[in-house]
Amino acid sequence: MQTDERTTAPASFLPDPITIDLEFDALLPALKPYEHALLEHSILLEGCRDPLAVWAVDRKLLLLDGHARYNICKKHGLPFTTKEITLASRDHALLWIEENQLCRSNLNDDQSIALLGDLQDSGAFTAEKFNGILNGVAPQAVTA
Description:
Strand content: 15-25%
Helix content: 40-55%
Shape: globular
Number of strands: 4
């Protein structure tokens, strides 16, 4: 997996550079209202510190991670950076999103177990890898 980080000018000065894929977006649990409010407050005070993860495919940048940050930046016309994630296919992109979501603190246990189950069902996680995660052993990331 290769990455390329770039800065984007304030959203109010550009045509929309990022595409939201509905299937990707559906994999992401919504932030709770207070989580969204705290994130917006942080971005307004300090800017968007973390780059948005995007996948360049078919002359588009599809957003993989950072949907809430992206929407807040667009709302307020704030600049953000992107980090391009190189993936071999749409299936790899879906797996990358699910694996990345496992690291989120805003997931409850049921959501985490459902994601792990999806990854195991897809064949991305073997029983050994699945059990390792449940016992605190980090898996290797999806690569291109």
